[in-house]
Amino acid sequence: MVASQHSLSGAARAMAADSVSEEWVTPTTTAAKKNSIAPTEASIVEGQKIFSMNCESKSGAMTVF
After folding, report:
1. How would DSSP label each residue in 9-59?
2. Does the pTM of the predicted model rise above 0.70?
3. Contact criterion met (CB below 8 Å) for 42 and 48
4. CB 5 within 8 A of CB 16
5. How far apart are the first and last CA of the chain?
6. Distance from CA of residue 52 to its chain's centroid?
7. 5-45 pLDDT per residue, tens
8. Handedness of CA 39, 64, 61, 21 (dihedral sign)
């Protein structure tokens, strides 16, 4: 059974809408947060490792921007 968008929380509603449009939009409350990890070469490499281990098989190949 699929829940209607009216019964979903704001974040869940945003994810449901984004899954239809295939464009992910950061929720307003999240967009205002500052990343506590500086984007250094080492932190990016470590993040890529974590993504590969935990997410890549679920979301497809990693895209490097």
Report:
1. -HHHHHHHHHHHHT-----HHHHTPPPSS---HHHHHHHHHHHHHHTHHHH
2. no
3. no
4. yes
5. 37
6. 14
7. 445 566 666 555 545 567 778 888 888 899 899 999 999 99
8. positive
